[in-house]
Amino acid sequence: GLIVPIGWLVLREACRQAKRWHDAGRELFIAANFSSKQFSQPDVVQQTRVILEETGAPPHLVKLEITESVLVENTENAAATLLELQRLGLGLSLDDFGTGYS
After folding, report:
1. How would you list the strands of the sheet with 30-33, edge to edge?
2. Region 31-38: what's the mean pLDDT?
3. Going by DSSP bridges, is the β-strand pair 91-95/30-33 parallel, antiparallel, or unpaired?
């Protein structure tokens, strides 16, 4: 039952690192995996927004990786959530694409 809190911890630390690199004059991307359980949380966008605000990380330097199963399980909700995350300025990518449903 720790996958969701660990996922938020990982995202927070990734954002802190992106901020440190940015402050040092380095425009380096960092990616963090979102588990399907984390992605399906009703407050996923709000939690992500809070972490970005807390850490001061430039959103364009942070990429969220989701598995393709997230898109297949609930396509309509997943698309809406991805759009909201993208509106925060985050990059998005599919992890393990082509190894499962596709």
Report:
1. 30-33, 62-67, 91-95
2. 92
3. unpaired
Tokens of 35: 């588990």
Dump pLDDT digits (tens) for 46-99.
999 999 999 999 999 999 999 888 887 778 899 999 999 999 999 999 876 556
Amino acid identity at 2 = L
Helix, strand, coil % over all residues of the chain, rounded to 5: 60, 15, 25
Radius of gyration of the chain (CA): 13
SS3 (DSSP) at 59: helix
Of 78, 67, 62, 75, residue with least CA distance to 12: 62
Token reading at 54: 């807390």
C-alpha distances out from residue 74 to 15, 68, 79, 92, Å? 27, 11, 8, 17
